[in-house]
Specification:
With about 210 residues, the protein is an alpha/beta fold. A five-stranded mixed beta sheet has the order 3-2-1-4-5, sandwiched between helices. Strand 1, helix 5 and strand 2 form a beta-alpha-beta unit. The radius of gyration is 20 Å and the shape is globular.
Length: about 210
């Protein structure tokens, strides 16, 4: 057979998933494991969520849905963002994806091309750097500082941003550090985005996993 496309080998796997498979096998063997390897809370889905899924399936909602998600789901997203972000968001601009990786991939594939630079948090979700490379852009790591609660240094960000910067990725609370960005951090990003015109990809998948009053 002829070889696979070169790009097929450019995507790197996620080390955490390899650990997950090992842990699951250990659990299958009866070992008690305290799992810290992946972003999966140690409790089941709330009962009302489970029941809503069962009720929907029993009502016949097991067929094709719009590619962007059902209207009801997108409307709920719009209302959530209107209530929590103080912005007006149209339902037409809301989409639903099966997980975080597809939307990261689709966003970078849509926005970036060869010669572009993408700034991403380091340490960060492994999908960032490998997807940036896959779409032909250059990954630029933005160090997160432990002494400041794993926030980035504003001056360092200013040094990294230039005319080639196409996207700046934010992740707050951060994966894997748990660091939370502050208002002044976002203000710096907004200022630079207005100056250089880059896009901001804000990964907020853990926004509700906060264990304090902040």
């Amino acid at each position: 057979l002829k070889p696979l496309a070169a790009r097929a080998t450019s995507l790197k796997g996620e080390g955490a998933m390899e650990v997950v498979m090992k842990v699951m096998e250990m659990q299958r063997q009866g070992l008690a494991i305290n799992r810290l390897e992946i972003g999966d809370p140690n409790f089941d889905a709330p009962e009302h969520v489970t029941q809503a899924a069962i009720t929907s399936l029993q009502a016949g909602n097991g067929h094709y849905a719009p590619a962007t998600g059902t209207y009801e789901a997108r409307k709920a997203i719009q209302e959530y963002f209107d209530a929590t972000r103080g912005i007006s968001c149209d339902v037409a601009n809301c989409i639903v994806t099966p997980g975080g990786k597809p939307v990261i991939f689709a966003s970078l594939l849509t926005l970036c091309q060869a010669g572009d630079e993408v700034i991403y948090p380091d340490p960060g979700f492994p999908a960032y750097s490998t997807t940036i490379e896959y779409v032909g852009a250059k990954p630029i790591p933005l160090p997160l500082q432990e002494e400041t609660g794993f926030r980035f240094d504003a001056q360092k960000l200013r040094e990294l941003v230039n005319e080639k910067t196409k996207v700046v990725i934010l992740c707050s609370p951060n994966n894997p550090t748990g660091g939370v960005l502050q208002k002044e951090d976002l203000e710096v990003v907004a200022e630079l985005s207005r100056t250089f015109g880059f896009f901001v990809l804000s990964d907020e998948v853990y926004c509700k996993l906060l264990h304090d009053d902040d």
